[in-house]
């Protein structure tokens, strides 16, 4: 076998074996990866809608909503994701909303890259808890009805703005007092 | 549109500088930043390869990997192979077209394959969902940011040669400490543009 | 046997990739904000390095010289993807923190350098000894960096509070400049220790 043939054969064989090994690993890990992603999502929905035990995904007007229900199937609220523009990158937020009462049921910061020790405090309950029970008609103005964090106003403002902007759209799809 | 692209450039070159904020490309950054001249050569060569990689990564992701559902497990392998071949190709083309240009930055080309900025740019393009134009601009500004970091460091290191550095800190140690100070300066750019 | 021990020890100190050779340092700066990230990254790299060293060593007489680098890259990229998928499946929160630095193990200079300079020239057993030494040498270095950054940056160690409530966190330690400064000081300290031991 001449040298070129050998090069081609070796490279091809290695590539095929590598590809097959990876396809096999993917098949083996993929169900677990999907499961983890589903669990993380479900956990986030449970955190923002108290009393949720199972959820249902609904696509409506280009947005994805997660309807939280308790064990008996009673609807407890809807959750949706929104993204704000933070100090050092996007902030992904899960928002829980109860259309019957027209109030927020809670929020959770899913991902962010704000400054540790300062803006990153938006992740802590001391910040997120203030949105629990907040009326969707509130102003969501930082330093007025949204408490900010000492030394970091941009990150809390980004969260408040993102929630307010998305609520404007969501309350059109699911009006306050309406069915869902 | 143009505003978003301008934000992307500033965000990639200054705010999230690949060397000082994302910690990528440290090996070439330490290796070739001792002289201004070599820094400029390396920076230009890397910028060129990065722009090409961005184009290649965009097409591979959206025309090969995604349509065939391979992106979850063949992304890393295919990107790195394409980068390696691209670098080879660029080297051959440069040698054919302009031997003077090859002498100027050809020697840096083989080193670029293992510059992690190149693979990082390829991986970030699908992750951030950039469109074609944004991908090119992203690759180009990643290279410009890297070049900026190299030139800044080389300028300092050329002067540092005359400084009385404690013996234990000579070599990479003092470069890291200097990079730390430069990183502090780059930290001042955070919040400059919406990311 | 003595040769194997020598190959193993080499990476731990004499040719420690981070502190002595100063290669493959991108990840050691980027993910070292908490001690557990350091440990995880160290183990991930050790796994990729050991597996690819063994395979490169076994295939050393089959792979033609001219295409050896592409072959090594395919081998390394394959093991990296295995780690990437496994971490995503079993340690999703850790995977989130490491982000892009797990796939970037492919271009970590340590792995390709050991394949090219060592594993392709010796038998699989010596290759394993060398890879484990290098991998663990990388792991202890990156863990040390992350311990220092976590203690001063968050006042915690592996998430447990070690510095009292009155301690003010040095936020800079968790930010990019802190990584460079800690790295610079540690490389300097290791230089000093190396010189002291060499003169004795």
List the helices and strands and how they pair.
The complex is a heterotrimer of chains A (180), B (195) and C (200).
Chain A: H1 3-48, E1 54-60, E2 63-69, E3 75-85, E4 90-98, E5 103-111, H2 125-128, H3 154-173
Antiparallel strand pairs in A: 1-2, 2-3, 3-4, 4-5
Chain B: H1 2-15, H2 26-32, H3 36-65, H4 71-97, H5 99-105, H6 109-112, H7 116-128, H8 132-160, H9 172-187
Helix pairs in contact in B: 1-8, 3-4, 3-7, 3-8, 4-5, 4-7, 7-8
Chain C: H1 2-12, H2 26-30, H3 35-58, H4 68-90, H5 92-98, H6 109-119, H7 124-154, E1 156-157, E2 160-161, H8 176-199
Antiparallel strand pairs in C: 1-2
Model description:
The complex is a heterotrimer of chains A (180), B (195) and C (200). With 180 residues, chain A is an alpha+beta fold. Chain A has one domain (48-173). Helix content of chain A is 39%, strand content 24%. Chain A has helices spanning 3-48, 125-128, 154-173, and strands spanning 54-60, 63-69, 75-85, 90-98, 103-111. In chain A, a hairpin with a 4-residue loop joins strand 3 (75-85) and strand 4 (90-98). Chain A is elongated. Chain B has helices at 2-15, 26-32, 36-65, 71-97, 99-105, 109-112, 116-128, 132-160, 172-187. Chain B has one domain (19-187). Chain C has 8 helices and 2 strands; from the N terminus they run H-H-H-H-H-H-H-E-E-H. Chain C has a two-stranded antiparallel sheet with strand order 1-2. In chain C, helix 3 (35-58) packs antiparallel against helix 4 and helix 3 packs antiparallel against helix 7 (124-154). The B-C interface holds B 20-27, 30, 72-77, 80-81, 84, 113-116, 118-120, 123-124, 127, 166-177, 179-181, 183-184, 186-187 and C 22-27, 29-30, 69-70, 73-74, 77-78, 80-81, 84-85, 100, 103-104, 106-109, 112, 172, 175-181, 183-185, 187-189, 191-192, 195.
């Amino acid at each position: 076998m001449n040298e070129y043939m050998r090069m081609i054969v070796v490279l091809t064989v290695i590539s095929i074996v590598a590809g097959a090994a990876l396809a096999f690993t993917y098949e083996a890990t993929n169900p677990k990866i999907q499961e983890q992603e589903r669990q993380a999502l479900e956990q986030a929905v449970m955190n923002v809608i108290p009393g949720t035990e199972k959820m249902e995904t609904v696509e409506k007007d280009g947005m994805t909503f997660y309807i939280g229900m308790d064990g008996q199937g009673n609807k407890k609220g809807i959750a949706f994701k929104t993204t704000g523009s933070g100090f050092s990158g996007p902030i992904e937020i899960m928002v829980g909303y109860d259309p019957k009462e027209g109030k927020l049921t809670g929020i959770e910061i899913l991902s962010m890259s704000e400054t540790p020790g300062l803006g990153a405090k938006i992740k802590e309950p001391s910040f997120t808890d203030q949105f629990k029970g907040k009326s969707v008609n509130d102003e969501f103005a930082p330093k007025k009805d949204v408490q900010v964090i000492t030394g970091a106003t941009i990150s809390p403002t980004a969260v408040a703005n993102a929630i307010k902007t998305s609520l404007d759209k969501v309350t059109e799809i699911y009006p306050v007092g309406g069915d869902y | 549109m143009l505003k978003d692209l301008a934000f992307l450039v500033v965000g990639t070159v200054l705010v999230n500088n690949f060397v000082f904020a994302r910690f990528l490309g440290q090996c070439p950054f330490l290796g070739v930043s001792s002289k201004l001249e070599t820094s400029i050569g390396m920076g230009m060569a890397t910028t060129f390869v990065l722009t090409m990689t961005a184009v290649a990564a965009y097409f591979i992701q959206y025309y090969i990997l995604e349509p065939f559902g391979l992106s979850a497990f063949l992304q890393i392998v295919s990107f790195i192979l394409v980068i390696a071949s691209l670098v080879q190709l660029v080297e051959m083309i440069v040698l054919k077209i302009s031997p003077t240009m090859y002498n100027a930055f050809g020697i840096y080309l083989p080193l670029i394959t293992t510059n992690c900025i190149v693979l990082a740019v390829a991986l970030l393009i699908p992750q951030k969902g950039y469109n074609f134009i944004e991908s090119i601009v992203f690759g180009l500004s990643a290279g410009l940011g890297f070049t900026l970091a190299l030139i800044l460091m080389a300028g300092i290191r050329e002067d540092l040669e005359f400084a009385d550095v404690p013996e234990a800190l000579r070599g990479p140690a003092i470069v890291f400490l200097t990079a730390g100070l430069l990183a502090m300066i780059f930290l001042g750019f955070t919040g400059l543009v919406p990311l | 046997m003595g040769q194997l021990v020598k190959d193993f020890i080499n990476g731990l100190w004499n040719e420690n990739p981070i502190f002595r050779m100063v290669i493959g340092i991108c990840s050691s700066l980027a993910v070292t904000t908490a001690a557990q990230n350091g440990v995880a990254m160290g183990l991930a790299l050790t796994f990729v390095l050991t597996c690819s060293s063994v395979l490169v060593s076994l295939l050393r007489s089959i792979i033609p010289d001219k295409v050896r680098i592409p072959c090594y890259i395919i081998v390394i990229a394959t093991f990296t993807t295995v780690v990437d998928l496994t971490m995503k499946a079993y340690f999703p929160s850790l995977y989130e923190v490491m982000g892009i630095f797990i796939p970037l193990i492919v271009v970590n200079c340590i792995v390709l350098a050991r394949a090219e300079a060592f594993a392709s020239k010796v038998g699989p057993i010596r290759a394993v000894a060398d890879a484990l030494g290098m991998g663990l040498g990388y792991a202890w270095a990156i863990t040390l960096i992350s311990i220092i950054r976590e203690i001063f940056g968050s006042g915690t160690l592996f998430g447990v509070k070690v510095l009292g409530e009155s301690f003010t966190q040095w936020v800079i330690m968790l930010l990019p400049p802190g990584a460079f400064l800690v790295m610079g000081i540690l490389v300097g300290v290791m230089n000093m220790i190396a010189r002291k031991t060499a003169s004795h």
